[in-house]
Amino acid sequence: MTDWEAVIGIETHVELSTNSKMFCSCPTEFGDEPNTAVCPVCLALPGALPVPNEKAIEGIVKIGLALDCEINERSLFYRKNYFYPDLPKNYQISQYTYPVCEHGSLDVDVDGEPTVVGITRVHMEEDTGKSSHIGDGGGRIQDADHTLLDFNRAGVPLVEIVTEPDITSPEQARAYAAELQRIVLALGVSDARLEAGSMRFDANISVRPVGTTELGTRTETKNVNSLRSLQRALAFEIDRQIRVLEEGGRIVQETRHWNEDTGVTTSMRTKEESEDYRYFQDPDLLPLEVTKEWQDEIRATIPELPAKRRRGFLDAGVDVETAGVLADDDDLSRLFRDAVAGGATGRTVGIWLTGEVIAYLRRQEITIADTSLTSGHLVELGSMVDGGDLSSSAAKEVLLAVLEGEGTPGEIADARDLLQVSDTGAIEEAVDAVLAANADAVDKIKSGDMKPFGFLVGQVMRHMGGKADPKVVRSVLEQRTGS
Amino acid sequence: MSDLANLSITDAASGLRAGEFTSVDLLDAVTERAAVTEAHLHAYLTLDKDGARLAAEEADASLARGVDLGPLHGIPIALKDNMCTLGLETTAGSQILTGWKPPYDGTAVARLRSSGAVITGKTNLDEFAMGSSTENSAYGESRNPWDTDRVPGGSSGGSAVTTAVGSSFGSFGSDTGGSIRQPAALCGIVGMKPTYGIVSRYGLIAFASSLDQIGPFARSVADSATLLGAIAGWDRFDATSINAPVPNFAGSLDAGVVGLKIGIVTELIGEGIDPQIIAATRATADKLADAGAEIIEVSMPSTEYALSAYYLIAPAECSANLARFDGVRYGHRSSVEGTTEDMMAHSRAEGFGPEVIRRILLGTYALSAGYYDAFYGQAQKVRTLVRRDFASAYETLDVLISPTTPTTAFPIGDKTADPIAMYYSDVCTIPSNLAGDPAISVPVGLDEGGLPIGFQIMAPSLGEEVMYRVAAEVERLVDFTARPALATSEVTAP
Ligand SMILES: [Zn+2]
User: Fold this and answer.
1) Least CB-CB distance to A286: which of B240, B329, B340?
2) Nearest Cα residue to B152 out of B311, B25, B42
3) How many domains is chain A partitioned into structurally?
4) Could you give phi then psi for residue A19, rounded to 5 degrees?
5) Same domain as A439, residue A365
6) Pick from A48, A85, A91: which is nearest to B320 by CB?
7) How near does any CA of chain B get to the CA of A286, in Å?
8) Are B344 and A85 an interchain contact pair (Cβ–Cβ within 8 Å)?
9) Is A275 in CB contact (< 8 Å) with chain B?
10) Residues B82, B201: contact at Cβ < 8 Å?
11) Cβ of A79 and B328 within 8 Å?
12) Which member of B239, B340, B344 has the closest CB to residue A51?
């Protein structure tokens, strides 16, 4: 039996959330009413001409810089020619040679195993309109009675990010896609909503026997609308290809459609034709100049990226999972950092924020800004726990009360009578009383049998009404029993 | 009153301000002229009588109020029917756009309106500006006012005819490979193509985007400069428009040519050019020399390949530019039953004429995988060579001169069966389009058959001022005053 390996490359389309479209001044935000955000340019009326949107160029340069790309100081717009009713000009303005960004990379991590995914290119193009096929065919164009067209989305700036075929598993593909989504969100250039189509993935997949270097025939899988379906679709397609090859068949180069409900990919194009887009440089657009100075200006606006943020959190003592959760949330990140800078222990604050705080916010469907929690509260709460004034379970209760706006941790702990006694004198008294009442246990311990020690701790705690600092209790007990 | 229609724009403008006549009088004069000549010539596709009248009345009213919008205020001007006009049918000479009324004015049109010009209507053209005779119009050919059995040239034939006979005081066309200069030459008037990027293409229905430029037809060099002045200048709606100060087109009309170095292009005064035209070109060059210019014969070897390169580049661009005409959003939609794809294909097949289809096919082929390098890629290299040839010529020369056309007006139907012969009509004009430089055709005489001969002056990029300077001197030196018989109020409709 041959061992197979998968070779995967991913093309990602990201709609930029600029105010206006790529080549006209129509808004990119529009309601449900079709064909309301349109003009002569994006409807491709005779005589209309495109003029590039500078904000979109800034957006793609940000993405390119975040992916460690080289930015071409001079890049070219091309016409990609194909007839389709929702493509108003029947060509798409895109890029071919000299895209805005080339030769980048993105580090992704699957279960602690790092991989570098090469970024071939990041180029600028425009989105198409939307077709709705009406009739008995269940939305399929070939069976429709008629087709309705909405050009609101036509001309929205679209960035395409193409990887090298460096990805070898569905898990890696998912990790890549998730990290790319985080970066795009961190850059603030797109809302990157997979379910809404503002971020879309197409995957090129082939398989080959392990140890060989020649690439197998690839298929392209479209219509994956979530990270989970990307992983599922890839797993299905890899298995399908292996099965075909093991049964002596051959893989047809084709585009396949992922069906989320059935969990299978099916062939979209029945004809085995290679498309000829007849690319040529768009004579309506001059070469796009992105000078070093402009690049520097754009670079200066790039916020801290998720990977670096996560590294900072790991260094502050949280675990990998907590670092990931914190890094995905600007508010939590800020609170965490400020609290740690104020002297709180990273590990404790991380657990609170990703545990109680997130759960509370979700329950209430609110954000941090809607609560009165500050980093100062976290510092105070942390020092109460570290100083033995508050048990960790009491701390969680206090934290919830802070979120509810009941006051500072100190005020709340006081009001609810949650403060621990770490006054050694009071504890010593309680210990002595407990020891006097449990002479057997003391004897056992003195003879080297430590079993009753926990029992004695419990007795002291009970004696103190649960408000003693267990650390102090232990140390007094150890001292008194000579253990 | 009707002879008002023969006034120059300069004279009409001063008469208006002197109160000798009104804009409405000028409009009436061209309308009366059109009423007679249209039946012979078919220059207009649409005469916007109501719109023009309103504009003329408004022009008179504002002048009376003391609002003077400049030299075109109140002047009746015709527009080629590939320039989008708000609410006024714009067909590009094609069935595929029959009845289409643009929801917007192109930039040049908007500028003409704001300079007070009165738009008389839309003129005939070869379908989508593809042709050199106006015979490719889906609405029937226009005819040459000097001999109605002959073509007026093209593709802007209709505009040229209106200005030649006085059914407009001036007009605009578009020049992709000679479509203004060639009909100007064949109709005995002044036609010029500006530097690429000086006039916005926004609202001009594209044929070949890297070559198309809007430019004026006029009965004098001074009028030409005035008309160009009204539409030139940077436009934020055209990314290829030049963001630089506009040359002073009329700044040196009286400066003469003393000391100017003028190159006469060897390749354009030899084989393939009518000997009478060569003789007229040389005679004009001699007059320029007598007037103090230095005439130098200069070889431009790349011009021999320019025609072939043009007929790959222009069709390639048009194959994409015309893809939008698919029956989906506007224009002709086929009634053939079938899929959306079938509808698009049939709409195009039914809506486009044979020359347009020929060029779309040619261009699609030239861009196809496996052919791109040999055709489109090679043509772009030739284009670079042409640019280089011109640039090096202008290192030592102020302007270049040549005939505008290889022949005078040819009989209707003469070249329709032979596209290559038709394409050759643009051999002298195409190099300037490839180079992106300005060029003008000025009438310098009549051939033995009484047909006008055009003389071309080419200048470096943004060199309109020196181009007009030489053109004005040629106009003075040759003193071409002949007018076609139809350009009088004596003629009646057939
Ligand atoms: Zn728009």
Assistant:
1) B240
2) B42
3) 3
4) -70, -40
5) no
6) A91
7) 6
8) yes
9) no
10) no
11) no
12) B239
- A216 and A206 Cβ atoms separated by less than 8 Å: yes
Q: Among B324, B348, B362, B365, which would you mutate to test the A interface (most chain A Cβ atoms within 10 Å of its Cβ)?
A: B324
B364/A278 CB distance under 8 A: yes
Return the H-helix or E-strand segment holding B461: none
One domain, residues A251 and A325? no
Q: CA-to-CA distance for B245 and B111, rounded, in angstroms?
A: 17
Closest CA to B9 of B63, B80, B70, B79: B70
Residue-wise pLDDT for A414-426, tens only, equals 888 777 766 777 7
Q: Is the pLDDT of residue B1 over 50?
A: no
Q: Taking the CB of residue A44, how many other CB atoms lie within 10 A of it?
A: 23
Q: Show residues of chain A in contact with B239, CB under 8 Å.
A: 49-52, 284-286
* A20 vs B338 pLDDT, higher one: A20
What residue ranges define each of the domains in chain B, with the CATH number in brackets? Answer: 2-253+469-484 (3.90.1300.10)
Q: How would residue A144 be classed by pLDDT, with cut points 50, 70 and 90?
A: low
Query: Which of A20, A21, A49 best probes binding to B when mutated, by most B CB atoms within 10 angstroms?
Result: A49
For B200, the token pair is 């916005």
B367 to chain A: closest CA residue: A278
Quick one: average pLDDT of A237-257? 93
Strands (DSSP E) found in B306-450: 399-403, 439-446
Which domain covers residue A204, as residue numbers? Answer: 4-298
ipTM score of complex = 0.96
Q: Which of A103-107, B231-235, B420-424 has the lowest mean pLDDT?
A: B420-424
Q: Where is the domain boundary, A298, A330, A351?
A: A298
Same domain, A149 and A288: yes
Q: How far is the CA of A29 from the centre of ligand 1 (A)?
A: 12
Q: Are residues A170 and A195 in the same domain?
A: yes
Domain CATH for A444: 1.10.10.410
Predicted confidence (pLDDT) at residue B34 exceeds the cutoff of 80: yes
Give the tokens for residue B117: 């010009």
pLDDT at A140 over 90: no
Mean of pLDDT values over A394-412 = 89
A318 and A191 within one domain: no
Average pLDDT over residues A3-31: 95
A175 in the same domain as A31: yes
Nearest to A108 by CA among A180, A10, A175: A175
CA of residue A36 to ligand 1 center, whole Å: 10
Eight-state DSSP code of residue B444: E
Q: Are residues A318 and A408 in the same domain?
A: yes
- pLDDT tens digits, one per residue of A163-183: 999 999 999 999 999 999 999
Q: Report d(CA A347, CA A382) in Å as an integer.
A: 10
CB contact under 8 A, A47 and B208: no
Å from B231 to nearest chain A CA? 16
Lookup result for tokens 């006012």: B145
Contact status, residue B227 vs residue B72, Cβ threshold 8 Å: yes
Distance between Cα A65 and ligand 1 center (Å):
29
Residues of B marked as catalytic: 80, 155, 179
**A407 with A436, same domain?**
no
Which of the listed residues A365, A385, A415 is the one where a domain comes to its end? A415
Tracing tokens 């709409």 back to the chain, one arrives at B347
* Sign of the C-alpha dihedral computed for residues B359, B360, B366 and B372 taken in this order: positive
End-to-end CA distance of chain A: 63
Encoded amino acid at A205, one letter: I
